[in-house]
Amino acid sequence: MNTDLRLTIDRIKCDGHGLCAELLPELISLDDWSYPIIDPGPIPERLAPIAQRAVATCPVLALAMRRTRVSK
Amino acid sequence: MSGLRLLAGPDLRSGAEALADHTRRLGAPALGGRPLIETLVRSGLGGRGGASFPVGLKWRAVAAAASKGPAVVIVNGAEGEPQSHKDKVLMATRPHLILDGAFLAARTLRAAQVVLYIGEEHRKAWSAMALALAERPEAERRITRMAGAPNRYVAGESSAAVHLIDAGAATPTTTPPFPRERGVAAVPTLVQNVETLAHVALIARYGDAWYRSVGRRGAAGTVLLTIAGGVKSPGVLEVEAGTTIEEAVGATGGVSEPAAAVLLGGYFGVWLPAMQAWEIPLDGEALRGRGLALGCGVIGVQPAARCGVCDTARIMRYLAEESSAQCGPCFFGLRALSDACSRLAERGTNRDDIARLKRWAVEVPGRGACKHPDGAVMFLRSALSTFADQFASHPAHWRQQPA
Amino acid sequence: MSDIVLWYTTRGAGAVSMILLSAVVILGVLSTLRFQGSGWPRFLTPALHRNLALMTLVFLGLHIVTAVVDPFTHLGWLTAVVPFSSYYRTFWLGLGTISFELLAAIVATSLLRGVIGQAAWRAIHWLAYASWPVAVIHGFGTGTDALSGWFIVLSIVCVGSVVIAIAYRMVQPSPDLLTSARSEFRSAVSRKPDQ
Q1: Cut 0.80: pTM above it
Q2: Which residues pair with B231 in a beta bridge?
Q3: Interface pTM, i.e. ipTM
Q4: Where do the structural domains in chain C lie, given as residue ranges?
């Protein structure tokens, strides 16, 4: 079964702390007001541990990592 | 005009049609139940709140989610779009059509509660619906309550409606979960526009073939529109689906002065050059094929004498101020876009602001919890395209025009 | 001889715990202010806050164990978890027990934040503001060194730093720029249920 890891964000909980972008600059950048712009694509497996850390570091638990099934 | 269905019956100026007259004219209401869902699917009826989502499919989803328990029906008469009046007119003149549809939904989906979510400033609509509710049988009145929708643009959004009833504040919430899965009191909730429910009431009586028996250019059914702007008699009218914009505007007496553009779908819609707009048929499928949508059915005719840049700036300012301020990209992004538009309108074209508009127009959409920023940006992009010449060479002025 | 070692370890570990806990509170305050500097990324503040809190528990553990094991104090293991249950300096030691339990609750809920959710975590985390002063007062009440110079200086520095940090926090505007707009909109669209 082919699965994808993807980042999801609750935009209402997000307060623009920006810690996620510091930890995971490969996939997250900040806009002009310090809110995250998140790469919608799958997370490369090598980045999964640091992505997990970014999820845990969010002060408001807005960031999450989901495994979704990929249909070919 | 032929094909009047929702607005058929007594003259609209005589106010709300009472239950006795309504029943005498149309017959007893249908019973509803699971077969109604399949009838709705076959009819191809699309939602009239803005998204045009197929009604039968929506009811199927709620029925599936509520298979083991109760559901809730929210009758959405918030009509927060400033230029739209069709829902107010329908509530004020044909409340029993709407209520028929609401209780058909309640019986079909086994709803334990029906909420009439009506814009609190729509006085006539509110009292007409309240009086109509009082005429209904006790079994229907017992499960129904009325809730006032605050007069803000996003208050009519589905999750905001659910949130107002559940938690007392009409702010959009994060989805998923969607109201059809988890709404009021965490129970599957059907949020349906009043016009849609009125169509359901007639389809339940006369069938899907009857619904599809009118329509032009291959479209089916009828549609309520609000014609606004530079036309001889602005107002609400019902037309057959597939009617072109030109035909619809013509039915209200035509334009009052030469038109430059048409705003299709209200502030959540798009500007189109008039030459292109006239021939467009008002039919869900045909519009989708062109990348357009009927939305809330507002057709705003923009006279050539008005400044497209200034009007765009005015509408962007409104949309920015109507952000619920829950998501940074929406609140700050729309404000920045609106400020740039205002600067263009007041001080004239400059390359930096145009560049900023283009950059933020890419960054902002999709980064809010609801579709408000997406709609505002789509509106802005259509303005940049339709009024391209004016944006490129706008003189430094703020034409004082009545809004 | 080993009794003296235990005794000094208890007092030393207690003092270190107070220093660490003060640093933890200050870093917590700086986290809410979204502090950052050149070479000091924002994530470093809450990360250090978390790691020093865990380190505090280590020294606190040492402080408690050596105190209980010490024959001079006649403390049973129960006094580490039941406040005011010791004969020895009942009140002041009880405060220590309370402070320890508050800290344990904060750390436990933080480790389980994903499970219990943000709201529950936040409610308990506010207890952090109680754990620290209770610990400081406990130190003055039970400590043999309460009146000795080094302890007084240490306490003044710790208490002073925390007070300055909290005062600074209270005069700063909220770094969340949406705060006022969000609550303004919310009150504009809030309605009491009428039926």
Answers
A1: yes
A2: B255
A3: 0.94
A4: 2-188
